Amino acid sequence: MDRLHLMSVFVAVAEEEGFAKAARRLGMSAPAVTRAVASLEDRLAVKLLNRTTRFVRTTEAGRRYLEDARRILAEVEEADEGAAGMNAEPRGHLAVTAPVLFGRLFILPLVMDYLQRHPSMHVSAFFLDRVANLLEEGLDVAVRIGELPDSGMKAVRVAYVGRLLCASPEYLRKHGEPEAPSDLAEHCIISALGVSPTVEWKFGDGRDAQSVRVKPRLAVTSNEAAIDAAVQGFGITRLMSYQVAPHLASGALKVVLSKYQRKQIPVHVLHREARYTSAKVRTFVDWLVAALRGNPALNDQ
Which fold has domain 3-83? Predict the structure, then answer.
């Protein structure tokens, strides 16, 4: 069998963690997938997969081979697209990752628009509140919030966001608006544990930096729950600006203590630099960068 075909089959089985799922993904029969993996293992004289009746997992050698196979298959795809020309219509599969709420609010609509524009494309969107490794997890593009460590990735800065304190107009009419961080002791505080895991909130930077210990009356484990409680007038919460942007725009929430905001946090679009010649990555990254840079909600309020 063709070596690239065997690689493709192995990658599908490893990623799907099953022969039947890989067969459906590839449009092959399950026995054909099994034979392909067995042929590859015979050719390499090494066991790539551990199989039981309940699961399929890569061996240590299989994990190393999976990483190399993904890279080789990507380079072959890039070579094909390069030969077709830079203006070739993007086609194939793209894997994208972003933080959960950011992904739902900003990336998902752009992905759907992109798919409408390019009918030969398929996208898998992984919205995760953790840093996914593009190379190890087979991802093409990532959106990251925060300062970036040095890496071999190509990064394009598209926006800045920040942490904001906000409350509903109804709450502020009843309880007044805090004029300084120390005034928060007199207010009902909603703590979103995903954003503020401690009860110490920091304000300002440099010489103006200060910390205030707050005692939340309500602590929740999701940003959405904190937003809901604040919109319903329960108290003051602290969240990322992009998370509350729709509610600020509608007037459901109002920013307080804005002059005490801390330094803004950058938002980047990342991809593996070698892949930028790929039509699918190039067009998607260009689409994301232009749309995110032009979105007024991604400017600190």
Answer: Arc Repressor Mutant, subunit A (1.10.10)
